[in-house]
Amino acid sequence: MVSWVGFFKQPAQKVAGHRLGFWQAAHLSIQGDKHVRDGSPCQDESDSRALEDGAWAYVVVADGHGSDRHFRSDRGSALAVAAMRDTFHAFRNRARDLGEPGIDELAQLWEIEAGEVVARWRAKVHADLVTRPAQVPGKTEGERGLVRYLDDFAKRNGYAQLEMLFWQLRRFEEYARGAISKEAALLGPLPYFNDPAWDQAKFGGWQAKAYGTTVLGVLIGPDSLHWVQLGDGAMVQIVGGEATYLVPPPPEALGNLTPSLCDEDAQQELRYGTSLIRNGKIPSAVLLTTDGVPNSFAEIGGFFAFCQELAKAAPDLTQRLPGWLREMSRKGSGDDVSVAMAWLTELPAKRHDPPVEVPSDPHENTGEIVEATAEPVDERGGEELDIQCQATQGGRDPGTGRQVVEGDDAGPLEPGHPVEAADGPGKGSDRGVEDGR
């Protein structure tokens, strides 16, 4: 199953007198081989787009956690991607209002907007819970993921604690029915478990954990890159044909442990920054992947080689990537796999995206400014490429907006050599740790 694939392209503007070309972008999320076999949904989500005549582009991926307590993580990852989209658009709209901001102004503005990612996600989770409260098993079969969570909870904690959890779920249903609104903007962020205004005994603390997910995002502008990282996965740039980390993985991400949007200290775990682009020189491609991709390789060198081949295959990416990722999951991690990539080209384009107005409230936080080194981009000609995706049954989920589509298979995997992975827990397997990450 492919969750969504997009292919967007726009002609670019000139930056500091140097013609950059224009950005194109594509993204794809594939249901992992293990999830196909056990009937679990795809818990990855991804998105990408070129904006403002290709002078801007964004890429984002999110990886929902797979253990039973994260029984809505497929929705959580979709909401994380939506929260990043809101952040990108809010930043661009506010930057536009400043006229021609300098790098310091952009970095300060990014600190404010990036610092809102966790709150935006928790607000969307709050609205989703109020709109679709967890369905406790009873006269109906109940929500499948919740039923599995309750079975696991009973084994771990006993039936007395299970009865308490049932009671808390029903109290939350009552809370949802009496909510003042079902809109995230009016409801506000889901309260934290230790919030004095939150009745822990009455409602419990399962709500955010149910939606647990990572998120990685990069917004590329004419003069700077702006990034957000919360959790594992890979953020890669292609410079001079060589792949390197744009931002290294967080040191806290070890094995199946990862920082998560559902953590009580997610705001402190959030990492973000601004990378300066000098003299119109930028990476020729920026890639984000969920951890199922690098975990499919025995060594990081194999993963970087794969990223380099993706950048070389950019003109045909939408035809070739579905087959590559399916084989990677089958021979490698077995996990869901996602790639979102933006790359530069000189191809002509006719597609135009209207500006998106997204209001946001400022929030103070800290970030960093680092200087990006990169290569000039060679001009290349060619024919315009159309969007390559085909809708299948399932359509769009009304709650998350997740579109189920099928891409063309591309035959055998060419770049890199993923390692064979055995079934069961291990590198690249779903998270099932006690702390809920």
From TrEMBL:
Domain PPM-type phosphatase, chain residue ranges per copy: 32-325
Residue spans of biased composition, Basic and acidic residues class: 428-437
InterPro entries xref list: PPM-type-like_dom_sf, PPM-type_phosphatase-like_dom
Superkingdom of origin: Bacteria
Annotated region described as Disordered, given as residue ranges: 391-437
Gene3D superfamilies (alphabetical): PPM-type phosphatase domain
Name under which the protein is recorded: PPM-type phosphatase domain-containing protein
Organism ancestry: Bacteria, Bacillati, Actinomycetota, Actinomycetes, Pseudonocardiales
